[in-house]
Amino acid sequence: MGVSHPQNTSGAYLASLTSDESAYQYDSTYNYKYINGGASESFAYLSDDDGSVGLEKDSSDGMVIIKRIPSHLLDTNAPVWKNYAYELFTVTNVGAVYDIGYQLYQGEITTGEATLYGGSGVKGFKTFSSFSEARKLYSQWGKGSFDTVKDSIMHHANKHGGGDVVTYMRRASNFNKRGAHSSGPRDDGSTLWERRTGEFIEERDGKIITYGWNRR
Amino acid sequence: MIDRNIYETVIENYIEQTIIYYKRASKERGEIHEYNWDNDIHDDSILFEMVSLSSYITGYATSAKKGKHERFQEIVDSLSPKSIYNSSIIVNWLTQENIEQYPNFFNYIILVENLRILTISACSHYLKE
């Protein structure tokens, strides 16, 4: 790999994120300390001092989930997990988990890339119920003609869901195809389903391209 | 010579406007859906056609806005054949009656087409730089 990282006490790679202000402009309070993982591992994670996991990476689609503690929401009496917001990062050109730490450390993830959800100013602050839910919902989407899956989700959630990304993704995931009309495979490989209620979903290669509803 | 920042700003404005017009046409879209459903119009639905087309065009427009050079030619090639006027479903829908009955949805359709043209123009311009 040619990139040296310091190692924490457990022997895993680690890198400080706090020196990279350019990548994180929303909150100045970050409790994640380490990027753990290695090239041979299937995922990476970022941990706090207490060992709780703060970042995961799904190597299949370049997704990285970060959770952090927004300072304005910090409640020291609440369970740790309740103090975390979840964000989805899309990291491009990542060949291996080892490189995630390198890229984060180098600040190659911009603020724009870093904010899917949970940033300041987000109306109706909500989080996914867990990392696994975020991963599951995210993995159901395709990027279509967008650069990234995250771009596609953000656009369609804004257009059809009023910007409430989590609720929008949950609704899309729960679309009931039973009793819905299907277009069958179209020329571009997509299939559209719609229900009498006006709710519709478009998929291509088993991935959601868009979801919404047409109703009075 | 048009500055790249200008193109990016205009593309962003157009994308925002398509969302505004889409929402503005909410009631009309509901009416169209009900009419289509009651008359068993599904595969030739103007709503289906625009859902696919607008997502396709906006995805490339969003990419062009970011200025990623490696996709400019792909964007031009992909969007060039995707005019609304190449879709029989859309062209057949553009009757005087529909335009008058659904003015907001008509405006949305035209705006999506303009976003396509704008994105092609911007990327073509970038490629000559």
Distance between the termini of chain B: 10 Å
Number of strands of chain B: 0
Q: SSE order of chain B, as H and E?
A: HHHHHHH
Structural class, from secondary structure content of chain A? alpha+beta
Choose one word for the global shape of chain A: globular
> Rg of chain A from C-alpha positions?
19 Å
Low-confidence stretches of chain B: none
Question: Overall pLDDT of chain B, averaged?
Answer: 94
Q: What is the helix tally of chain B?
A: 7
What share of the residues of chain B lie within helices? over 70%
Please name the two chains that share the biggest interface, counting residues whose Cβ lies under 8 Å from a Cβ on the partner chain.
A-B, 29 and 33 residues
Number of helices of chain A: 5
Using DSSP, what is the number of strands of chain A?
A: 9
Structural class of chain B: mainly alpha
- From the spread of the alpha carbons, the general shape of chain B counts as elongated
How much β-strand is present in the residues of chain B? Answer: under 5%
Mean pLDDT of chain A: 55
Assembly state here? Answer: heterodimer
Question: How would you describe the overall organization of this protein?
Answer:
The complex is a heterodimer of chains A (216) and B (129). By secondary structure, chain A is of the alpha+beta class. Helices cover 21% and strands 20% of the residues of chain A. Chain A has five helices and nine strands. Chain A has helices at 97-106, 111-114, 131-139, 149-161, 165-173; strands at residues 34-36, 45-47, 53-58, 63-68, 85-90, 181-182, 190-194, 199-204, 207-213. In chain A, the strands form two sheets. A five-stranded antiparallel sheet of chain A has the order 1-2-3-4-5, sandwiched between helices. In chain A, strand 8 (199-204) and strand 9 (207-213) form a beta hairpin. By secondary structure, chain B is mainly alpha-helical. Helix content of chain B is 78%, strand content 0%. Chain B contains seven helices and no strands. In chain B, helix 1 runs antiparallel to helix 3 and helix 1 (4-24) runs antiparallel to helix 7. The longest helix of chain B has 26 residues, at 103-128. Classes of the chains: A alpha+beta (216), B mainly alpha (129). The A-B interface holds A 143-147, 151-152, 155-156, 158-159, 181, 183-184, 186, 188, 190, 192, 194, 196, 198, 200, 202, 209-210, 212, 214-216 and B 15, 18-19, 22-23, 26-27, 29-34, 37, 42-43, 45, 47-48, 51-52, 55-60, 62-63, 66, 68, 71, 78.
